[in-house]
């Protein structure tokens, strides 16, 4: 199937061709015709499947058919998403696909001065992309009216709930007109998400392109067991592989992200961090540098996991195992997007084995383990962390003595695997899965994080 087969208008087809796209992904092929029919839609698809285009393309087409004659252009479509980076990327996609239609759009989010956003709103727009906090704020100030909304989109709904935006979403629903088309997208569909969707959608069509919370088959996954105190050494060792031109590294906290960047700088590895404590400009600059490959390593916290979209990103490293299983799926979904190949390495210490068991249960597979490295796990029974998964301050851990007594600084030699193993790794074995279950602590509310989403 080609985009021409979806009965799209010429201005959109021209824009898609200019972007180099000719074939829709499964979520796009299924969703676009349904949205064009005016149906409400409940979409379940993991990250990297093309959800953004699945709703932005038909919205552009529907709004183009009824151009507004009002000089100020009342807002006709509202897209609500949980993070600033994701909002910006949706805005970029709308601009790219709608560049020949005459439609206008803008993006609003917190963490920056509102003056430019207000000016754009006052000039009149067709489509508004917003994070919940800034949207509610500008509504309260009288700068935004939702009375003219024809199409409402709630994107990344499960993350929206995880971040504590449920009350803001309910306030938005009250302000929206009852007669509207609603599109609801989520990477996972737990019971609470189903309940929320039932309050938004009216007899929706349903689209699910992959099993809930599965990982893409194109992503090769590997696990290293390592003491926490040796994760820095292991990271530097892994990054010695020249095939890793760029790499996205995930940590659970902002503090650890900054420490990893500082550590890599000592080894002359160009790295930048992206998290909620960074200014909007700093975060966008870091992401731009990473896309341009002037920065080799981008270190991100979970809050940014879904919003980072980089073409041809081949490597993701979980410096810390996430304590929410679904977050693992979202993290490694930054690579292997839209059918491309990717590799995800994860560093697991003894305490994180509990999280690993939850992840393997969710994705219904054992993650192969790489044993042949210079920093194998030695401390199998460390003291437990405090409740809620918080990390204790790093303590000295016993280092494994490698056969060559080498460290990350001296560049330990790595064994060569067979052709079906990642370069620079030892022989993977199947994970033993001997970890116990754990209770997950959900991410607290923030209006801060997640090129074009496709």
Explain what this protein looks like in three dimensions.
With 454 residues, the protein is an alpha/beta fold. The protein folds into 2 domains: 3-208, P-loop containing nucleotide triphosphate hydrolases (Rossmann fold), CATH 3.40.50.300; 219-383 and 406-429, Rossmann fold, CATH 3.40.50. The chain has 14 helices and 15 strands. It has a 7-stranded parallel beta sheet, sandwiched between helices. The chain has a 6-stranded parallel beta sheet with strand order 8-13-12-9-11-10, with helices on both faces. It has a two-stranded antiparallel sheet with strand order 14-15. Strand 10 (271-274), helix 12 (280-291) and strand 11 form a beta-alpha-beta unit.
Shape from CA axes?
globular
- State the CATH architecture of the largest domain: 3-Layer(aba) Sandwich
Rg, rounded, reads 23 Å
CATH class of the largest domain: Alpha Beta
CATH topology of the largest domain: Rossmann fold
The level of helicity is 25-40%
The major sheet is characterized as:
7 strands, parallel
Q: Average pLDDT across residues? A: 82
Would you spell out the secondary-structure blueprint of this structure?
Blueprint lengths: L9 H10 L6 H11 L4 E4 L6 H14 L12 E4 L3 H14 L7 E4 L6 H9 L3 E4 L1 H9 L10 E4 L2 H6 L3 H10 L5 E6 L4 H10 L4 E4 L10 E7 L5 H8 L8 E5 L2 H13 L4 E4 L5 H12 L5 E5 L13 E4 L6 H8 L9 E7 L4 H11 L5 E2 L57 E2 L25
Parallel strand pairs: 1-6, 1-7, 2-4, 2-5, 3-4, 5-6, 8-13, 9-11, 9-12, 10-11, 12-13
Antiparallel strand pairs: 14-15
Helix pairs in contact: 2-3, 3-4, 13-14
């Amino acid at each position: 199937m080609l985009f021409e087969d979806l009965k799209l208008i010429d201005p959109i087809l021209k824009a898609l061709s200019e972007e180099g796209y000719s074939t829709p992904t499964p979520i796009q092929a299924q969703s676009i015709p349904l949205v064009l029919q005016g149906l409400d839609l409940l979409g379940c698809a993991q990250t990297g499947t093309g959800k953004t285009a699945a709703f932005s393309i038909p919205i552009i087409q529907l709004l183009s058919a009824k151009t507004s004659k009002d000089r100020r252009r009342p807002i006709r479509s509202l897209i609500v998403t949980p993070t600033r980076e994701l909002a910006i990327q949706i805005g970029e996609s709308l601009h790219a696909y709608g560049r020949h239609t005459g439609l206008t759009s803008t993006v609003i989010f917190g963490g920056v001065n509102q003056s430019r956003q207000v000016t754009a709103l006052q000039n009149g727009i067709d489509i508004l992309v917003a994070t919940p906090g800034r949207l509610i704020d500008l509504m309260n100030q009288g700068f935004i009216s939702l009375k003219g909304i024809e199409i409402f989109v709630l994107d990344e709904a499960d993350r929206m709930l995880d971040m504590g935006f449920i009350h803001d979403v309910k306030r938005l629903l009250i302000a929206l007109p009852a007669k509207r088309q609603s599109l609801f997208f989520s990477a996972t569909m737990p019971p609470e998400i189903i309940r929320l969707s039932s309050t938004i959608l009216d007899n929706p069509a349903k689209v699910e392109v992959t099993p809930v919370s599965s990982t893409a088959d194109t992503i090769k996954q590997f696990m290293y067991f390592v003491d926490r105190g040796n994760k820095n050494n292991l990271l530097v060792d892994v990054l010695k592989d020249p095939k890793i031109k760029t790499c996205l590294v995930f940590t659970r906290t902002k503090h650890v992200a900054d420490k990893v960047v500082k550590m890599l700088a000592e080894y002359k590895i160009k790295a930048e961090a992206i998290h909620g404590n960074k200014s909007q400009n700093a975060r966008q600059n870091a992401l731009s540098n990473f896309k341009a490959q002037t920065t080799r390593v981008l270190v991100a916290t979970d809050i940014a996991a879904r919003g980072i979209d980089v073409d041809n990103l081949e490597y993701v490293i979980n410096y810390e195992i996430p304590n929410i299983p679904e977050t693992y799926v979202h993290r490694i979904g930054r690579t292997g997007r839209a059918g491309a190949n990717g590799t995800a390495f994860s560093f697991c210490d003894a305490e994180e084995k509990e999280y690993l068991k939850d992840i393997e249960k969710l994705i219904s597979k054992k993650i192969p383990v790489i044993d042949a490295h210079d920093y194998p796990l030695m401390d199998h029974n460390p003291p437990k962390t405090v409740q809620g998964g918080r990390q204790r301050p790093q303590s000295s851990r016993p280092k494994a003595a490698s056969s060559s007594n080498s460290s990350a600084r001296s560049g330990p030699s790595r064994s060569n695997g067979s052709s079906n193993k990642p370069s620079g790794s030892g022989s993977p074995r199947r994970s033993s899965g001997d970890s116990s279950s754990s209770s997950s602590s959900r991410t607290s509310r923030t209006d801060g994080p997640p090129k074009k989403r496709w």
